[in-house]
Write a structure and sequence with these properties.
single chain, mainly beta, Jelly Rolls, Rossmann fold, 5 helices, 22 strands, globular
């Protein structure tokens, strides 16, 4: 029943915080199975639940089944076993450990048995183990979540919707607190005091992330299919606060991704991120999204590996100006008459028409709006003008006027229409 090998789960919280950690199950719509295992609670908690959480293909929750509610402060291992039936609309299923309080909870010896005969589908592959957990210090997570690449799990858990984290770009907050995005250059920013930081990301296996530490470029992360933990930074100096930024560098056509939470090293702390005073919005197509800007040559086939939104003109300008940037760009989009960016411009997630961007509710409005569109409208050449600049500028100006009338009511926002040929240099 587990999409990957089952694993021990451990979750530590401080100061009556809430936390959620999970293991992916193999989705079987309408399937019946039994979840069993052992749990230990050490600390003071308002609530502790072991639950199965189900989502449809758009990651909208369709089921929450509480499997077990353990005693909250005994410190002893408690066994449980409960039947679960998945809804027919289930596409993604998670076995989760949810809690609110101060302390540590361990979940181990987990088993999922499916079918009428109760045959075990997968036995837990303990990565810390109940025996080890019994003798471990209660403030240290004894186990880990199995990921595509094994990494050191960190004990301080932070929910994705924690107010100290800042999300720049268009994000949808899910019922479980996870934050979902699709547009290029959507980013998560945090101020970290601690030696290491991990992030949990759910993805279809095509997107990439670029990490910046104290405004300097760091590692690029190639996301794996499913929900996994990834290390953003380690061996950080602990005598000061570090600015850690994670930027989605692939565009929306590669699918949505979801930030599920953050882990910090023992003793690690988050400090609130203050928004930057300058704000830029980029509206464009492949040039603005960074189509092929990391390809070795123009003959390279386009893929997630050849795109980097952190190397686009909008991203470079925002760093130079100390500004936040929203990039609403999709390769190949036109101005007119169909397959236009206008059709999806107002959406938080471009493939979900019912999730509409509300700038007032989000508390984010640009100082400068840059529109760089029209290239694809004249990709086949223009019979009226040799280089097509005239009609392109006219259409772009019309688009700028349309956007201004529809959404940008801020009188202080400046709208710039751009037309230039892409260059190999960044």
């Amino acid at each position: 029943m587990f999409r990957e090998g089952a694993a021990s789960l451990a979750l530590a919280t401080q100061g009556k915080a809430s936390g959620f950690v999970h293991q992916l199950l193999e989705p079987r719509p309408g399937g019946k199975f039994t979840i069993s295992g052992s749990v230990r609670v050490q600390g003071r908690f308002e609530q502790v639940q072991i639950a199965v959480q189900c989502f449809d293909g758009n990651w909208q929750q369709v089921q929450w089944k509480t499997v077990f509610t353990p005693s909250r402060s005994t410190g002893d291992w408690q066994s449980f076993s409960a039947p679960v039936t998945l809804t027919n609309s289930t596409v993604y299923a998670l076995l989760g450990l949810s809690l609110t309080g101060d302390g540590t909870v361990w979940l181990d010896e987990v088993n999922a048995a499916s079918g009428s005969n109760g045959r075990a589908a997968v036995e837990a592959e303990s990565t810390g183990g109940r025996n080890q957990a019994r003798s471990a210090n209660s403030g240290t997570a004894p186990g880990s979540i199995t990921t595509a690449k094994q990494l050191r799990m960190l004990p301080v858990m932070v929910r994705a919707d924690d107010a100290r984290l800042r999300y720049v770009g268009r994000f949808q907050r899910l019922d479980n607190g996870a934050m979902r995005c699709a547009w290029s250059h959507s980013s998560l920013v945090m101020n970290v005091r601690g030696s290491a930081v991990n992030v949990q990301v759910g993805d279809g296996g095509q997107n990439r992330l670029q990490v910046f530490i104290d405004h300097q470029p760091g590692k690029i992360i190639e996301l794996q299919n499913g929900t996994h933990w990834y290390n953003l930074a380690e061996n950080l100096s602990t005598d000061r606060t570090h600015r850690v930024e994670v930027i989605r560098i692939t565009e929306a056509l590669f699918g949505e991704l979801t930030f599920g939470g953050v882990q910090l090293a023992e003793g690690g702390l988050l400090e609130a991120v203050q928004p930057l005073s300058r704000r830029i919005e980029i509206i464009g197509d492949s040039i603005s999204a960074g189509y092929g800007n990391e390809a070795a040559s123009q003959n390279d086939k386009f893929s997630p590996l050849t795109q980097n939104a952190a190397l686009t003109y909008g991203s470079i300008a925002s760093r130079a100006l100390g500004a936040e940037v929203h990039c609403i760009a999709w390769s190949g989009k036109l101005l007119w008459p169909n397959n236009t960016l206008t059709e999806i411009y107002d959406q938080v997630l471009p493939n979900q028409k019912d999730v509409v961007w509300n700038p007032a509710q989000a508390g984010w409005s640009p100082d400068v709006i840059v529109i760089n569109l029209g290239t694809n409208d004249f990709a086949g050449g223009n019979p009226d003008e040799e280089d097509g600049c005239g009609p392109t500028l006219i259409l772009s100006a019309g688009f700028a006027d349309n956007i201004h009338r529809r959404r940008f009511t801020q009188p202080s926002a400046r709208c710039s229409v751009m037309h230039f040929r892409p260059a190999r240099t960044h």
